[in-house]
Design a protein that fits this description.
With 79 residues, the chain is α+β, with helices and mostly antiparallel strands. It contains 3 helices and 5 strands; from the N terminus they run αββααβββ. Strands 2-1-5-3-4 form a 5-stranded mixed sheet, with no helix packed on it.
Length: 79
């Protein structure tokens, strides 16, 4: 068993702020639980985990790992 599976608590950062979450937490769950993103409509921002873009449709299935760095940024529309 690897350490990610045995950890009961994940240590993460959300926009540079350290926080903890339960093992198995998805990106969507993390965003719903924290004031930095909970006050925003999901379509108003984009997300990245460890610098890799995570599409809105994948937030429900993207399970976070210990040490992940989550970044929120304003989605830009236009051309």
């Amino acid at each position: 068993m690897n350490t990610h599976e045995s950890a009961a608590v994940l240590h993460l950062t959300l926009d540079g702020v350290s926080l903890s979450a339960a093992a198995g937490t998805t990106l969507a769950e993390l965003l719903a639980q924290h004031p930095a993103s909970a006050a925003l409509a999901p379509e108003r921002y984009a997300t990245a985990v460890n610098g890799a873009f995570v599409a809105r449709a994948r937030r429900l299935s993207h399970t976070l790992q210990d040490g992940d760095a989550v970044t929120l940024f304003q989605a830009i529309v236009g051309g």
